[in-house]
Amino acid sequence: MMNAIMDTVDAENQVELEEKTQLINQVLKLKHTLEDLSARVDAVKEENLKLKSENRVLGQYIENLMSASSVFQTTDTKSQRK
């Protein structure tokens, strides 16, 4: 009788231990996933800042080209008709 009770308790403890182990493994897996996602977000933020800076430089370059080109200069249409 005592052996049967001990076996039942041991079996319950074993099941509980396996469940805890599975939960710990899931938590660790989720932790690693979160770390990976966080690193990816940081990398994307850095890339975004780099691209914004490059866009500003290109925008200034285009504005300088347009201001230096006579094609994009404003013209007075009245003086051209005379």
UniProtKB/TrEMBL annotation:
Entry annotated with the keyword Cytoplasm: yes
InterPro entries (alphabetical): SCOC
GO cellular component: cytosol; Golgi membrane; trans-Golgi network
Keywords for this protein: Coiled coil, Cytoplasm, Golgi apparatus, Membrane
Short name of any one Pfam family annotated for the protein: DUF2205
Coiled coil: 20-54
Disulfide bond keyword on record: no
Membrane topology: Peripheral membrane protein
Subcellular location: Cytoplasm, Cytosol; Golgi apparatus membrane; Golgi apparatus, trans-Golgi network
Domain of life: Eukaryota
Subunit structure: Homodimer. Interacts with ARL1, ARL2 and ARL3. Directly interacts with FEZ1 and UVRAG. The interaction with UVRAG is reduced by amino acid starvation, but the complex is stabilized in the presence of FEZ1. Interacts with NRBF2.
Function: Positive regulator of amino acid starvation-induced autophagy.
Family from the record: Belongs to the SCOC family.
PANTHER family membership: SHORT COILED COIL PROTEIN, SHORT COILED-COIL PROTEIN
Protein's UniProt name: Short coiled-coil protein
Organism: Zalophus californianus
